[in-house]
Structure of Adenylate kinase isoenzyme 1:
Amino acid sequence: MAPTVERKKIDLAPLKAANVPIFFIVGGPGSGKGTQCDKIVAKYGLTHLSSGDLLRDEVKSGSPRGAQLTAIMESGALVPLEVVLDLVKEAMLIAIEKGSKGFLIDGYPREVAQGQQFESEIQEAKLVLFFDVAEETLVKRLLGRAETSGRADDNIDTIKKRLHTFVTSTAPVVDYYESKGKLVRINAEGTVDDIFGVVVANLDKVTSKI
Ligand SMILES: Nc1ncnc2c1ncn2[C@H]1C[C@H](O)[C@@H](COP(=O)(O)OP(=O)(O)O)O1
Ligand SMILES: [Mg+2]
C-alpha cells in the first residue's frame, strides 16, 4: 500500500487577493520546460515553480512529509495530487509575500484532476504552454542531462517509466485545455532561442499588464 502523506492547513487569502496570472507549463520530461521557464523568468519577472523541484526540495529537507514522498517518487509513480498542491500553495504564498507578478507552474498538472483541483482551490490558469517534442528527442535530451544533473531519475529505466507515465496521464491534460481554448501548443524540437521566440509571441499577447 502507498504510504500516506501528512497535510497542513493553508490560508490562501493573500494569494487570491493578489490575483496575479498563472501559467501551466506542460510537456514530457526533457521537453525543455525548465530551460524555457528560466528564460521567461528573466524576461517577464514571473515566479517559476517546478512541482518536481518542490518535491525534491521537500525530500531533501528531511521533514516527515519528505520521507513519506521518497518511496513514491523512487517508484516513478505520481505523488498524490493534494500533496503536490499543498507544496505549490505554500511556495506561491511565499512568492506573493515577496511581490510576485505571476506564476509559471512547471510540470503541473500531470493529470486532468490535478488541474481541476488547482483551479477550483486557487485560481484559473490564464494559458497552458505545451512543449511538444517527439519521444525520441526526449530520451536523447534526458540522457544528455543525466551526465551533469546528478538527478537519480535521469537513467534509461526511469526515463522510460516517466515517459510512459507522461503519455498515459498527461496527454489528456493537453486535450482538456485544448477543448477549453487555453492551450498553446509549441513545437519544441528546435533550438532554445527559436522556441523562446514562439513563447514570447504568445506571452506578449496576454501579459501586457504585467
Ligand atoms: N531546445 C532544446 N534543444 C536541445 N536541448 C535542450 C533544449 N531545451 C532543453 N534542452 C536540454 C537541457 C537539458 O539538458 C535537457 C532537458 O531540458 P529541461 O529544461 O531540464 O527539460 P524539462 O524541465 O522539461 O524536463 O534538454
Ligand atoms: Mg524540469
About this structure: The mean pLDDT is 90. The domain at 20-200 is CATH 3.40.50.300 (Rossmann fold). The chain has one domain: 20-200.
